[in-house]
Each structure stands twice: as C-alpha cells, then as structure tokens.
Amino acid sequence: MYFIYFAIIILVPIWAQIKVKRAYSKYSHVPSSSNLMGAEVARKILDANGLYHVNIEEVRGVLSDHYDPRTKTVRLSSGNFHGRSIAAAAVSAHECGHAIQDEEAYAFLRLRHTLVPVANIGSNFSWILIIIGMIAGMSGLLLLGIIFMAAAVLFQLVTLPVEFNASSRAMDQCVAVGVIRNDEERETRKVLNAAALTYVAAAAVAVLELVRLILIYTGMQSDD
Known about the structure:
By secondary structure, the protein is mainly alpha-helical.
C-alpha cells in the first residue's frame, strides 16, 4: 500500500513535467501565423486591455515566465521573449492573463497573494514539526505541523483557479487581438493545458500527503 502511495506522489509530478516539456518543445518549433515575438504578443494584449503601465522584461531560464504584481511586470524567459512560435505566444498571453486578473482584482488572485506569507511559513516549518512530532510521539506537535502544512496546501489549491482562469483569458485574448487564427486554437490550448497539469499534479500530491499525515495523527490519538 505504501509502495503504491509513494509511487503516485513521485510519478505524477514527473509525468506532468514530461507532458509540459513535450508540449512546449513541440510547439516552440511551430511558428504562429502572426509571426509576433512573445514580447510583442504580450505588449499587444496588455495595450488592448489598457495596461500600458505594465512592463515587459526578459529573464533567464526556461519556462521561468511569470507576472510580478509588485512591480506590475510581465517577465518572459528568453525563448518566449524572442520566440515567434505558438508556444511563445501561449505562454506570453498566459502571463498577461495574470496582469489582467491583477488589474480587475480577481478574487482568487487576491486570496493567493494574502496566503503567500502563511504558505511560506507552512512550507518552511511544517516538516520540522511533523518529523519531530512523529519521532518523539508528540501528537500535539504533529498536529501543529499538519496545520502549517494545511496552509501551504490551501495556497496550492487556490492557485488552481488562478492558473486556469489566466489560461482561459489567454485564449480569449489571443483570438481577440488576432495573435492566432482559429485553426491555431487547438495547438495553443494544448500548450496551456499541459502547463496547467503541473499545478494540478502538485496540488493532488500535496492533498494526498496531508490526508496521510492526518491519518497518522488520528492513529496516534487512538493509541493514547
């Protein structure tokens, strides 16, 4: 039983990463009909939504793309910043989706920002408390660790609607501003869906681990 459990929490994230890398690699070699660089796609979408104040910057790394709400900046990895592919357009549009969420005060995005400090504490300290609690047989300490971990899991769950909504906005914007044609929607959606799988996998594994720890805690309580 434990073998199956650990196989799931190890293999599911790996499978998700393989899916996103394959989709990105495939469609990064498929040029978009607009022939716009990712940075140009981002600027076009942002301007179409009145977000002239949002900057676009190039960052190092592969798929290191993100939106920074503190500085109102869309940051694109070099491959997507300069790329003229379906993948570059999809990723750039997705990050612009987050910028639009921020401008509209999208509820789940606001909630995720609020949870960041709590989630960071939960991620950093939960396992220390959990391990000490399990080794020392201290159910109270284990429970405290579970509570901290639950905060981190909640952050991951809230991230799901944020990411799916950003992808939905990305598709709508790509079509609305003419970045892709109708026959390119399928390929664009494949890139966005593959990226979303990584968040789904991470959330699923986190929930499974939280449930396992809760079961261990209830077992300790019944033994007392």
